[in-house]
């Protein structure tokens, strides 16, 4: 990258691929260069050399084999494999991947270990597969963009001083924040954390990463006209009375990224940035002229206010969450954003139910359902039914909760069949969410086998990048194991959550972990529970991020 014009990773890869292809290199040869330079496994490299995202690769696949459709999640699982959280492609899928990427099946599996050296007829020197460096043989590589992003944020790029603050490079890295793939970043961070077992090292690196991302997320604002920035204050408008369409558009574009950042790195790490953008959106709403611009600005302010409330909820600040939700609902009504009103009411229901006020949760769910019927959005109807299930379950209304589950399932099927674009805040809601709520209902009214079946489906369908949702689903599974008195599996599952939440820690997850641990007191002298206590102790030593 040049000194006055930083080149993004994607631009570097596009330029290099074009140069190699112009020089007559095959896709396989180009991918081998990418594997070496960007530390990719072959399945990632063969996709990236074409400039394809996982979603684009799935689109190309579906054009060729419409009867065997795949989503970006399929490519994500295949690319993580054989690492934790990945799934191996079947023989048929490997053959189709090879056809899609114009390579051999062996090219796709070149990172897997070779055991030829165990054959007594093989020379004493292990055989290194062609195109694989001996030092990398058998190593599980990770998605490139996120891996390099993580290294840049930590100031640990090759040749860089490990103690150098990352701020200098962060702004350039995030000139195009929409390029950040938080799902891949979550996968990388999770695998990376598994390789950093020492608690103090984790604390230091997590603190560095959190600070870097907070600065990175707000850095693009300094490029917009009319903004100032300082080392100690969030970006602010130099002329709050001026409406800037580009500024409002930037705030809108950042909301999905901030939601995903919260899922990956936790609420506390994301809240300051969300509040900064909320202040800017509020200024834009006040300055916007009457008409569509004003409604759009107020809706943006409402959505950022709801997001800030959600983050406060996860940090355990329920009073602030309620205050922000009330403000968000009022603003969404002012903007006549009916679907956003529905979503905010759903989150208010969730907050009330979590606080042990399920009847208030039922009231909010009923209001959400009434507004959802006016939207025509199956996602709005499905999620309104979902929060109703949770409130009715908490209120011990078995029959009514089952009816709400049926309504949710019907609306979910309509949502899955709907090909029209959906609002960005529904990104988290899919079939896995339904099965997760089903598991919560089963914990109250059914047996542990039903809970385990529901959590299995939820986890298999989950977005691997949403560490927040994955953690709660694992905790439902742990509770089912504990009810079966399978203490070893219960403790191991809770320990898996502790590993995930060393990256994405929230007070709500910590509370659930503690509740489950208290239920294991009759077995506190067993080895499994003692080891779990050690893991919990190490987890509590982590910084609040």
TrEMBL record:
Residue ranges annotated for the HTH cro/C1-type domain, each copy included: 84-108
CDD domains hit by this protein: HTH_XRE (cd00093)
Highest taxon listed in the record's lineage: Bacteria
Name under which the protein is recorded: Helix-turn-helix transcriptional regulator
Lineage, top ranks: Bacteria, Bacillati, Actinomycetota, Actinomycetes, Micromonosporales
């Amino acid at each position: 990258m040049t000194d006055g014009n930083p080149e993004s990773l994607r631009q570097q890869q596009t330029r290099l691929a074009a140069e190699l292809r112009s020089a007559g290199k095959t896709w396989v040869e180009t991918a081998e260069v990418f594997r070496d330079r960007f530390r990719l496994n072959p399945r990632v490299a063969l996709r990236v050399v074409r400039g394809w995202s996982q979603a684009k690769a799935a689109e190309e696949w579906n054009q060729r084999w419409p009867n065997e459709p795949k989503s970006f999640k399929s490519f994500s699982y295949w690319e993580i494999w054989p690492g934790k959280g990945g799934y191996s492609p079947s023989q048929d899928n490997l053959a189709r991947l090879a056809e899609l990427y114009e390579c051999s099946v062996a090219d796709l599996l070149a990172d897997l270990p070779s055991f030829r050296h165990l054959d007594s007829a093989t020379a004493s020197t292990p055989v290194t597969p062609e195109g694989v460096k001996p030092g990398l043989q058998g190593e599980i590589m990770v998605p490139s963009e996120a891996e390099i992003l993580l290294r840049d944020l930590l100031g640990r790029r090759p040749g860089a001083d490990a103690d150098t603050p990352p701020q200098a490079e962060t702004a350039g890295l995030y000139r195009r924040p929409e390029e950040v793939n938080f799902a891949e970043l979550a996968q990388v961070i999770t695998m990376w954390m598994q390789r950093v077992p020492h608690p103090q090292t984790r604390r230091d690196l997590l603190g560095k990463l959190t600070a870097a991302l907070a600065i990175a997320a707000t850095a693009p604002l300094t490029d917009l006209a009319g903004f100032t920035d300082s080392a100690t204050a969030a970006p602010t408008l130099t002329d709050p009375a001026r409406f800037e369409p580009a500024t409002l558009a930037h705030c809108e574009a950042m909301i999905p990224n901030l939601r995903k950042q919260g899922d990956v790195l936790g609420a506390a790490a994301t809240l300051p940035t969300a509040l900064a953008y909320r202040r800017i959106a509020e200024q834009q709403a006040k300055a916007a002229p009457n008409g569509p611009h004003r409604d759009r600005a107020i809706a943006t302010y409402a959505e950022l206010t709801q997001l800030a409330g959600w983050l406060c909820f996860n940090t355990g600040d329920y009073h602030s969450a309620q205050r922000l939700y009330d403000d968000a609902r009022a603003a969404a009504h002012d903007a006549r954003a009916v679907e956003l009103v529905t979503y905010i009411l759903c989150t208010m229901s969730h907050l009330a139910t979590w606080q042990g006020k399920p009847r208030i949760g039922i009231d909010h769910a009923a209001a959400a359902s009434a507004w959802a019927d006016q939207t025509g959005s199956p996602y709005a109807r499905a999620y309104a039914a979902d929060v109703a299930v949770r409130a009715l379950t908490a209120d011990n209304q078995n029959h009514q909760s089952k009816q709400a589950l049926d309504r949710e399932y019907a609306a979910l099927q309509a949502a899955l069949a709907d090909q029209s674009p959906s609002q960005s805040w529904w990104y988290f809601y899919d079939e896995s969410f339904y099965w997760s709520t089903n598991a919560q209902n089963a914990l109250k009214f059914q047996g542990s086998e039903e809970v385990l079946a529901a959590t299995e489906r939820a986890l298999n369908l989950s977005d691997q990048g949403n560490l927040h949702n994955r953690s709660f689903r694992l905790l439902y599974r742990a509770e089912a194991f504990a009810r079966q008195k399978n203490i070893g599996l219960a403790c191991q599952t809770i320990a898996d959550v502790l590993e995930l939440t060393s990256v994405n820690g929230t007070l709500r997850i910590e509370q659930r972990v503690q509740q489950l641990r208290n239920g294991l007191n009759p077995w506190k002298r067993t080895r499994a529970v003692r080891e779990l206590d050690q893991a919990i102790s190490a987890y509590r030593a982590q910084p609040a991020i």
